[in-house]
Amino acid sequence: MKYDLIIKNGRVILDDDVKEVEVAVKDGKIAAIGNDLGEAEKVIDAEGQIVSPGIVDAHVHITEPGEVTVMSGKVTKQV
């Protein structure tokens, strides 16, 4: 199978380990994780990087810019 994207050479966070394997994407979804997955339209070399497939970044902003926020007993205005 030819994938849309393969991410190679990164340290991939798995359920129970961290391994240097490839992550393949097809039609916007993770299609395979393993070694020597084949060809892709685009290849990203993630050497020295951490790859976290399927993990949602929980970083959120509680308020929108410009709203008044109460923090630590002080009222601040975000711009």
UniProtKB/TrEMBL annotation:
GO terms for molecular function: hydrolase activity, acting on carbon-nitrogen (but not peptide) bonds. It comes from the Bacteria. Transmembrane segments: none annotated. InterPro entries: Metal-dep_hydrolase_composite, Metallo-dep_Hydrolases_sf. This is Dihydroorotase. The lineage of its organism: Bacteria, Bacillati, Bacillota, Bacilli, Bacillales.
